[in-house]
From TrEMBL, chain A:
It comes from candidate division WOR-3 bacterium JGI_Cruoil_03_51_56. Keywords: Iron, Iron-sulfur, Metal-binding. Gene3D superfamilies: 3.30.70.20. One of its GO terms (molecular function) is metal ion binding. This is Tungsten formylmethanofuran dehydrogenase. It comes from the Bacteria. Transmembrane segments: none annotated. Residues 5-34, 42-71 form the 4Fe-4S ferredoxin-type domain. InterPro entries: 4Fe4S_Fe-S-bd, 4Fe4S_Fe_S_CS.
TrEMBL record, chain B:
CDD domains: TPP_OGFOR (cd03375). Signal peptide: none annotated. Coiled coil: none annotated. GO terms for biological process: cellular respiration. The keyword Oxidoreductase applies. This is 2-oxoglutarate oxidoreductase. GO terms for molecular function: oxidoreductase activity, acting on the aldehyde or oxo group of donors, iron-sulfur protein as acceptor; thiamine pyrophosphate binding. Residues 57-200 form the Thiamine pyrophosphate enzyme TPP-binding domain.
Automatic annotation (TrEMBL), chain C:
Gene3D superfamilies: 3.40.50.920, 3.40.50.970. It holds the Pfam family POR_N. SUPFAM superfamilies: Thiamin diphosphate-binding fold (THDP-binding), TK C-terminal domain-like. It is an enzyme of class 1 (oxidoreductase). GO terms for molecular function: 3-methyl-2-oxobutanoate dehydrogenase (ferredoxin) activity. It comes from the Bacteria. It comes from candidate division WOR-3 bacterium JGI_Cruoil_03_51_56. This is 3-methyl-2-oxobutanoate dehydrogenase subunit VorB. The lineage of its organism: Bacteria, Bacteria division WOR-3. Its EC number is 1.2.7.7. Keywords: Oxidoreductase.
Amino acid sequence: MARQTQVTIDKNRCKGCELCVHACPKHVLAMSKEINDKGYFYSEVVNPDDCIGCCFCAITCPDVAIEVAVGDNKDRGE
Amino acid sequence: MKTIFKRPESLTLTPMHYCPGCTHGIIHRLVAEVLDELDLRERTVGIASVGCSVLSYNYFNCDMQEASHGRAPAVATGIKRARPDLIVFTYQGDGDLASIGMAEIVHAANRGEKFTVVFVNNTVYGMTGGQMAPTTMPGQVTTTTPRGRDVDDIGYPVRMCEILASLRTPGFIERVAANTPQHIIRAKRAIKKAFQYQVEGRCFSFVECLSTCPTNWGLSPYKATQWLEENMVPYYPLKNFKTPEESEEGGKNAD
Amino acid sequence: MAKVLMKGNEAIGEAGIRAGGLCYFCYPITPQSEVAEYLSRRMPDVGGSFLQAESEVAVSNMLYGAAGAGVRAWTTSSSPGISLMMEGLSYIAAAELPAVLINIVRCGPGLGGILPSQCDYFQAVKGGGHGDYRCMVLAPSSVQEAVDLIPLAFDRADRYRNPVIVIGDGMIGQMMEPVEFKEHKFPPLPPKDWATTGCKGRKRNVVNSLYLDPIEEEKLNMKLVAKYEQMKREEVRYEEYNTDKPYQALLVAYGTTARICKTAIQQLVLEGITVALLRPITLFPFPEKKIQELARQAEWLMSVEMSTGQMVEDVRLAVGHDRPVYFFGRTGGVVPTPEEIRDAVKKHLTGKGV
């Protein structure tokens, strides 16, 4: 069972640059059809189960809009 | 659940004003993560320069000073000489550092001032609307090179790491990039080493970070990261140019 | 403490150290390079930091950084170098940082010469760089007075959190005169809790002059203006000479030129002509009220300067239409002689005004 992961995107900090979507090796993220307070289509988690907790999305986000948490069973050092 | 990635404490909560997809924000975060990991936040003074990062004093959660255009290395020199106990870094763009501030950076490096320079190279003057910078690529169109940079007319782009590496004194010089997760991880390693050398009071440290400018390159954020990889990286090789260890052991850089 | 015969430049260096100016940045320029040379020897002894920068542009920004980090930082230079510092000076004033700049003026404009002059009056008194700001400007007329004014400059820079300029013509730097370093006591200063010293145990500090919000920028401008109004109320300094008896004319002169005027006045006394002198010591704040008061007893005034006439404008501003204000000056590094000043005065007295 892939370990438990959780990606949290602060939708109102997102500027819709899509870099996280491109960076994710598992296509977990996609751009929403809704716009946030600033009028951007924000990024959101669409396939949470495929997430491997690699943090590429958070690493490549220019606006520190993404937080990543992983389950306790196996830590993956960043 | 254990959080393994979140905003570093050395970044304020203020949303950044950078254009969508501009990798300035990433580089800010890397510096902030390093300040957290080395526990430096409370004894660091950052110097914001003039350019897109002119407002970075709102983002770095430590004492900050705003320098006039090109003079951050001189301001940093003043602080470090006045209070050598403080950790000091400048955050500068290519117009600020390689154009108007060239004398200041070359002489600060040559004096071996014990502070760290984070130099963001995105080949244009972003804040003022995309004019040519010293680092603009050959043939690259900007608002002041509408027919593309003509190297026969105004010469080739300036390579700061190579210039500073030709100086005997500066100890740590490395060029990294912020356009892909892999590059970003390596960039952080270099920035961390740079600050560690400063903590040890060892040498002047300089990290040049290639960065994107989607708005003024006229590309989507992702295409901009590709343009950087295909055009900038070949001309601005990502590597270490100097480390104090090599210089001290009479390595390749000692002359 | 006994008097010592010292060159002005070296006395200035020593005075800066004794005033606590232990962070000094410089760039060589005649006629004041000896200050830097002297301090390069002395600073290590007193645990201060001395640095020769790559340019005066860099110097002014090193000053900004050091002052912003809460230490007494200063520099000395001469006219062309001071011009390069103007941008930095504007930033220092805007960010409300204390700094002391000493200008040993040489003739200009442009590359000019290396001989004494007072042609930087406007630059010093009217701010010099961009934006609404002023510097307190102190004008010694001797090496001793320079040594006495420097501690005051450091105190007032800290007290007002504003740059202070000490301006002397080339002679003040190059002359050798006996000088004594006296003890100078000042009331205690508030702590520099605004400085960037590392935010441990407090909110972080930001030294900055960028104000994109016009309302905030205007507040800053008003805050600076209030400082200058306070200076005008509390910091005016001048010397009166020969004003204790009736006089026909009033000379206004500062620095070395004022000393030459005193000799001219003594010569005129022998010819039965009584002329008085008002010597501003603070060029900003300018002693307007005093000049207005003294002007009432004179038929006319004359500003005597080593320039083509700069302070004369401020004298006219002070006096208005009450009295004619003439001007006599030599420039290009030429130092006026007492006789020339005497003759210029006599010409006006006999109505054949210049």
